[in-house]
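Cross-check.
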Amino acid sequence: MTSQSNSMLSADHFLLGTFSSNCSSGMTVTKVPERWDNSWANNLKLARMLDDAGIDFMLPIARWIGYGGETNFHGNVLETITWAAALLSQTRNINVFATIHTAANHPVVVAKQLATMDQISGGRVGLNIVAGWNKPEYEALGLTLPDDHETRYGYAQEWFDIVKALWTRTEAFDWDGKFFQLKNVLGDPRPAAELPILNAAGSGEGRKFAVKNANFLFTPAIDLSRSKEEIAALKVQGVDAGRPVDVLTFSHVVCRPTEKEARDYLEHTGKTNADWEAVDNLVRLQFAHAQSFPHDLLALIRDRMAAGHGGFPLVGTPEQVAEGIISLHEAGFGGTTLSFVDYVEEFPYFRDNVLPILEARGIRPAQKMAAAVA
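Predicted model, tokenized:
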């Protein structure tokens, strides 16, 4: 790989992306009829809007079975490799991540898929590595989920070591590891430059993996005073490991002309019409098998799961939403994803009313609207 830098890796501003637009209902576990329709047509329309507005990236969730309830939340999911490749071919500047479960995807195949996507996009593809946590999905795929984080992340480390070897070595090689035995493998083509790597981790093992391998650690912002301490500690870990790591979070946006309108809509979608059966299934699985969320804040997290999958609430007027984003920046986060009940319908209001405030406050670059891709 050359030393050329991906735009996310060289950015000097607060990063903004979207999360989970490839999934039915997006990030909102709601029954309202206007909840997100994750069709390809809607994803393409959204991607072009984001690209024109200068948004930095799109991040998908990889799911194989839904969470039940009346809506079977995340039962309909566009597969992330094909979704990302197609979006990259239809955009000009935005980065698009593929979310990959290490246990379900062979590293030699993934390395070639991403190298191909690197060519398609001119260097705008990213990799979100998932070491595994969702036991029902493992069972659906006929896989065994190890009970301990050490084994899961040991497997993920060898998996990613192979991917990196395929992206950097120019001669065919054998691999004799604990989990993989490979003969005469060669990565050709290889990415032209470094790809941004993202990893969500809450456990000690997970965070060690992220600091060692990822450019961006993805973690929830539940309590910003706690987040500030955690981010500072993670950055020290990165320095000690000899590599910088930035920290991203995820947010849910309900932005309206008045605070009352925004709060009323949040109540309507995230409480009155929440799919509570799906919410409880989601919370139960997250807390049984993952350590992404702090377990001592369960009651608060249950409400936030319904509204935006546990995301930081950005609710109110454009000024209030902008102040919420600025508070994430001041806590030390390098960026956040955004989700909406309906991304395509709601993003333009955010674009026109919130982004200019962030630009004026100096945490986002001024944007000139680009011409849409034909």
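The CA atoms of residues 223 and 312 lie 9 Å apart. Residues 370-374 have pLDDT under 50 and may be disordered. Passed to J.P. for a second look.
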